[in-house]
Known about the structure:
Blueprint (H helix, E strand, L loop, with lengths): L3 E13 L7 E3 L5 E8 L4 E8 L2 E7 L7 E2 L4 E6 L4 E6 L3 H32 L1 H19 L9 H89 L5 H113 L1
Antiparallel strand pairs: 1-2, 1-3, 1-8, 3-4, 4-5, 6-7, 7-8
Amino acid sequence: MGEQPIFSARAHVFQIDPATKRNWLPASKHAVTVSFFYDANRSVYRIISVGGTTAIINSTITPNMTFTKTSQKFGQWADSRANTVYGLGFATEQQLQQFSDQFKEVKEAARLAREKSQEKFELTNPALNIAAPQLSQDLSEDRHSPPLLTVNGPEDKLFRSKSADMEQLTSEKERIKKMLSEGSICEINLEAELFTLQDSNAKLVAALHEANTGVEEWKKQLAEYQEETGRLRDQVAELEAQSGRPDPSESETRDELTQTLEELEALLKAKDEEIHNLQSKNSDIRDLEKEREEAVQRLQDLETRNAELEQRVERAEQTLASSLEERDRAESEVQRVIDVLDVKIYDLNDLRQSLAKLIDK
């Protein structure tokens, strides 16, 4: 029995840029189907998406994977086996939530399947269970064994001071890198939102262009219908003026003309409603354009912040390098003092031996 689909959704697929590890690259031009599959023979869950004849996503779910919702309609997860990060842009928040819930269920099922497989492996290999406690005990003893300490008087204080400075600089550098990484993640999310807005904007502009073309045609039809309506009204008035008591054939003609007028009036009303709907779409496009401009501004602000953080990291690295140079000079000085003390101790030992010889004599 092969793989069976258990859940499917439509989404725009992205992959992280392998060069920068910061920007999203679209893997599909349009929304594609993203499905969860289960292989009962191997007890493996996979996420698969195919665009045309190419596999866009082929990701095996493991218990240590996490699906993160980075915005209202965008989520991502990292696949260490494929050495990439996948991103999905959904049309609604509900679709994103459904995919996230399904990811959690599949992840839990993968964890249970792995534990069951490990238990089965341990039962078929009892020698591993015998050796494991001794190995764990040896590791525990190594982990809890006390560290060796060396005390050299003033030199030890100097090394401790330098070590404290080094730890402080290293922690500051790590904190700045973390801030820079968080800024990059925000920038990635904004770029994904911007790409989605641009795609939606392009579709709405194309729809508006088609609608405007249709409006011009409808206006021409409307003018023709109005002209036809006026002509028919004139005919009705002329027929009524020609005969005060029309015969049945004239009455039937008048009824047909009246029915035609009503149909034309209903058609005119429908066309007016369509024109009103198209005018309301124009306001939606203006709102999307405003959102796109705001996203671009936020992206520029993040780029400025990233530049500032990079400068801080660079300054911290320079400070770290200078501290390393000072530590090297201090170590050289301490070594020189130790060498001098060794020479003096050697001379002192010689002097003691000479005194001992004189006392013996």
